[in-house]
Each structure stands twice: as C-alpha cells, then as structure tokens.
C-alpha cells in the first residue's frame, strides 16, 4: 500500500486536497472517483519526491484529421456539462470514433487520466493531434472548473478556422485546375498534334513563318529528349518542394504569398484573422497575455506574422501594452490597432478582439469572392492566349504556302 497526495474538484466546483491510501495509482484514482471527486493531480508520496509520470507511447497509424478533434471537443463538452465523468465520457467517445489512429490516441489519454494525470497534461503528450491552444484552454478550465464551456469555446474556435481554411482553399482550387488544364493542352498540342503537321510542312521549311519554326523546334526538343526532361522536371519539382518547406525557403514563399497580385490581400487577411481570433479566444479564456501571444505566434502560419508576434512578445515582456508594438507594423491596419488600444483602455480587450475577428472574417469572405471573380476570367484569358497562339502558329503556314502556290 502507498500514500497518494491528491487534488480534486468536487461536484460543486470547490477544490479538495488530501492523501489517499491505495495499492497503485489506478486504485487511488478509482477511490476518488467513487467519492464523486474529479482528479486534478495525483502523485505518490515517496521519500518526499513525486512519482515519475508514465513514459509516452508513440502513436502510429494514419494522421488524425482536424474534424476528429472537433468531434472529440464537442462530445466532451456536452457530456461534461450534463455531469458525465471525464473517464466515462472518453470511453463513450472512443466507441464512437471512426479513426483507428484517433482511437489509439484517446485510449492513451484515457489511461493517463485514469492514473491521475490532469487532462491538459495528457493532451499535451500528443502535440500533433492537440495543438498548444487547445491544451492551454483545457489547462485554464482546470483552474476555473469550467471544462464544459471551455471545450465548447474550443469547438467554436476550431470550427471558425476550419471554415476559413475551406474558403481560402476553395478559392484556389479552380485557378489551379485551369492552370493544370492549360499545361495539359499545351503538352498535347506539342507532343501529339504538332508532329502530324510536320509531314505537311516537309520540304517547305523555308516557307514557314518564324512562330511556326520556333514551335517545331520546341516540339522536336520535347519529343527527342523526353527521357531527360521528365526526370529533370521531377527532380527540380522535388528540390523546390523541399527548399520551400525548409525554414530558409519558407521565408521567400511567405513573402510571395503576401505580395502576389490579387490573391496577396486574401492571404494577408487570412493570417490576420487567424492571429486575432486565436489571441482573443485565449485572453477571453483566462490565459495570460504572454502565453497567449506565444501561442498566437505558433498558429500564425506565416514567417512575417511570426516575426511580428515575436516583437510583440518582447515588448509586452518589457511592460508595454499590446497595441504599442502593433502600431509599428504594416501587417496590422491602423484601424485595427486603434480598436485594440480602445479595448485595452476600457478593459474589454477580449470582447474587442472577438468583434474585430468577426468583422475581418466577413471582410475575408468578400475578398475571397472578389479573388474568385477576378481570377476566373484572367485564367481563361491566359489559357486562351497560350492555346490560341499555338493553334495560330500551326495553321499560319497553311495560308503562307497557299499564297505561294497560288502565285
């Protein structure tokens, strides 16, 4: 038998602490749950030191989807609010989960919680599934005793981010499809259709106009050296993907995303909405300003926004208000900075950030519509010019040769 020091929250929300005697941590946790206590901390009292937490088990399998985490948070919120103990709630969610990988993660978390590990610490062991903002919101709820409402807030936050991401991705799918079709049509014309015209032009090369000669040279080059340029394209594409995914290559890519014509403003609004929504949610949930800024930096999604939040973090640590460093950056509009400053003066910063985020999300939705409306005709025009130029270059010699024969 061993002594276990515990901290637990009662059904009325009050915090209780003491010592329980049990054979192991599992039995100690079961005793406390049977008494109607929600375990916050449970450590073995042994030679004045705490028992080492169980080691993490690596989770294999498929990647856990963002929707799985939203499902978990929404189900947990409802069950906890209706008085279902956390362990029973998690057991029910594990039975309903459809993802094998997510089930393995939840079973590991359930095992940790049953041995007295706080839920936030159990979630933190799986950072690829539960991001730092989710863990910190749960940690804040453990202090306030408001796990259900906090999980509901997590659901709203993640749902907003998911919808914003879908809108941005949806706006880029059609232009990407048109670009793919343009490249495919050009490839077809140069490798399949162009060689059929070479027989018509055979012996009359001196009569061909310059555009057609250039097109023939390109087509011949592609047809005769495809065994070289196909691996070269794959190698260049792979190398470019690796470089842009590295820390060094990510910076020019992120700069380009912010400064591209037409779509640059859409990406800028996306990063701004994500940052302010995250910051407002954390502050409203009781997370400290320094922790909130640090987490916001992690989820910003762009190197230049991360640099901005690094600067904000440094200056807030020196005692400045949040709005002061934001005034010195071009990434945040002055109107937004002024509203943040007003929220600080009135003590309603969280509410102001929430309203700003709602306004910017509506503005982003309009920006996405404008981008879609502008890119569609632009891509069709570019596709028409490229394909039309090739077709004209193919047919132009026919008229030239016809005039020579007529004379």
Q: What do these coordinates show?
A:
Helix content is 73%, strand content 6%. The protein has 16 helices and three strands. It is elongated and about 105 Å long. The termini are far apart.
**Poorly predicted segments:** 47-61
Care to count the β-strands?
A: 3
Count of helical segments? Answer: 16
Biggest sheet: strands, sense, closure? 3 strands, antiparallel
From the alpha-carbon coordinates, what is the Rg to the nearest angstrom? 30 Å
Main sheet strand line-up: 2-1-3
Strand composition percent:
5-15%
Q: Structural class given helices, strands, pairing?
A: mainly alpha
- Helical residue percent band: over 70%
* N-to-C series of helices and strands: EEHEHHHHHHHHHHHHHHH
Distance between the termini: 112 Å
- Can you give the mean pLDDT? 81
Question: What overall geometry do the principal axes of the alpha carbons give?
Answer: elongated
Task: Briefly say what this structure is.
By secondary structure, the protein is mostly helical.
Secondary-structure map:
Elements: E1 2-9, E2 15-22, H1 25-34, E3 38-44, H2 66-81, H3 86-96, H4 100-114, H5 119-124, H6 132-144, H7 147-201, H8 210-224, H9 226-245, H10 247-259, H11 264-284, H12 289-299, H13 303-317, H14 323-326, H15 334-346, H16 349-406
Antiparallel strand pairs: 1-2, 1-3
């Amino acid at each position: 038998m061993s002594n276990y020091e515990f901290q637990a929250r009662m059904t009325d929300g009050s915090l209780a602490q003491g010592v329980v005697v049990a054979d192991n941590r599992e039995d100690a946790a079961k005793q406390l749950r049977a008494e109607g206590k929600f375990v916050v901390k449970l450590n073995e009292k042994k030679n004045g030191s705490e028992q080492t937490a169980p080691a993490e088990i690596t989770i294999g399998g498929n990647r856990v989807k963002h929707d799985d985490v939203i499902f978990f948070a929404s189900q947990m919120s409802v069950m906890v609010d209706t008085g279902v103990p956390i362990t029973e709630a998690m057991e029910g969610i594990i039975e309903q989960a459809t993802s094998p990988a997510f089930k393995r993660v939840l079973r590991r978390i359930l095992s940790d919680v049953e041995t007295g590990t706080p839920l936030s610490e159990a979630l933190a062991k799986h950072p690829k599934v539960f991001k730092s903002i989710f863990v910190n919101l749960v940690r804040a709820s453990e202090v306030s005793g408001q796990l259900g409402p906090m999980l509901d807030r997590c659901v709203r936050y993640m749902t907003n981010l998911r919808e914003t991401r879908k809108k941005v991705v949806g706006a880029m799918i059609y232009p990407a499809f048109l670009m793919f079709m343009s490249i495919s049509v050009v490839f077809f014309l140069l490798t399949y259709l162009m060689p059929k015209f070479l027989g018509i032009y055979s012996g009359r090369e001196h009569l061909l106009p310059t555009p057609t000669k250039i097109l023939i040279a390109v087509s011949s080059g592609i047809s005769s050296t495809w065994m070289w340029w196909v691996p070269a394209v794959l190698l260049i594409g792979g190398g470019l993907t690796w470089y842009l995914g590295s820390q060094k290559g990510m910076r020019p890519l992120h700069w380009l995303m912010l400064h591209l014509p037409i779509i640059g403003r859409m990406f800028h609004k996306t990063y701004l909405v994500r940052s302010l929504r995250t910051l407002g949610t954390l502050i409203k949930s009781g997370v400290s300003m320094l922790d909130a800024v640090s987490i916001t930096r992690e989820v910003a999604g762009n190197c230049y926004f991360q640099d901005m939040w690094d600067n904000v973090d440094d200056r807030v640590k020196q005692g400045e208000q949040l709005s002061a460093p934001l005034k010195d950056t071009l990434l945040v509009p002055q109107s937004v900075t002024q509203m943040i400053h007003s929220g600080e003066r009135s003590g309603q910063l969280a509410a102001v950030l929430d309203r700003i985020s709602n306004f910017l999300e509506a503005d982003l939705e309009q920006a996405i519509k404008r981008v879609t409306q502008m890119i569609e005709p632009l891509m069709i025009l570019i596709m028409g010019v490229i394909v039309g130029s090739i077709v004209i270059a193919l047919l132009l010699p026919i008229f030239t040769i016809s005039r020579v024969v007529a004379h």
